[in-house]
Amino acid sequence: MKLIVGLGNPGREYASTRHNAGFACLNYFAKMQNIRFDKKQCKARTGSGMIAGSEVILARPQTYMNRSGESVGLLVNKFDINLDDLIVIHDELDLPLGKIRIRSGSSSGGHKGADSIINALDSRNFTRIRVGIGRPDNNNSLTVFDEDEIIHYVLSDFTFDEKQIVTEVISRISEAIIYLLTEGLTTAMNKYN
């Protein structure tokens, strides 16, 4: 059994923000696979189905981003998920808008949701699909942003032009998930990174 988790913040006010890229990707994937998020369990909205010969659970934690580990830990325990079968999709500041990185075993890179999951599982040995959202525009030639600037940026909506790029990326990530399930991690990394 595979567990695929999209990270974001619950609530309409966050629905189209950069920080909800993980939710957006998982929602699109679920729609393409005709899976509905019809259950509430383990502090998440979940749906399940058969994809590429594997039983798959899709989950959107309903905790806030920085507490995603609470939900993921409960889901991993409830369904006895091997960490090799856990895939987490989330936004990534350190990737340019529209870039994808698939990795396993990497650090959180400061992402609060990934950090929470690593702490809850006491392991970073799971697959992450990171969706590039880029960093805020840098008008002052500074490369360092304070925490408030970052929070404001990730909780703001994509611009019209950014939405065009993100729509394309969401579709590619859906393909990447299938490829990951059928061809494995190394092949998927070579194709999509």
What would your notes on this structure say?
- With 193 residues, the chain is an alpha/beta fold.
- 38% of the residues lie in helices and 22% in strands.
- The protein has one domain: 3-Layer(aba) Sandwich (Rossmann fold), CATH 3.40.50.1470.
- It has 6 helices and 7 strands; from the N terminus they run βαβββαββαβααα.
- It has a 7-stranded mixed beta sheet with strand order 2-3-4-1-5-7-6, sandwiched between helices.
- α1 crosses α5 and α5 runs antiparallel to α6.
- It starts with a strand and ends with a helix.
- The mean pLDDT is 93.
The CATH C-level name is Alpha Beta
What are the low-pLDDT stretches, counting only 5+ consecutive residues below 50?
none
Tally of individual helices: 6
Instruction: Assign the CATH topology.
Output: Rossmann fold
Judging from the principal axes of the Cα atoms, what is the shape?
globular
Report how far the terminal alpha carbons are from each other: 25 Å
Average pLDDT works out at 93
What's the number of domains? 1
Major sheet characteristics: 7 strands, mixed
Strand content: 15-25%
SSE series: EHEEEHEEHEHHH
The radius of gyration over CA amounts to 16 Å
CATH A-level architecture: 3-Layer(aba) Sandwich
Helical content stands at 25-40%
Overall structural class, as computed from helix and strand content, comes to: alpha/beta
Give the tags.
alpha/beta, 7-stranded mixed sheet, 38% helix, 193 residues, 22% strand
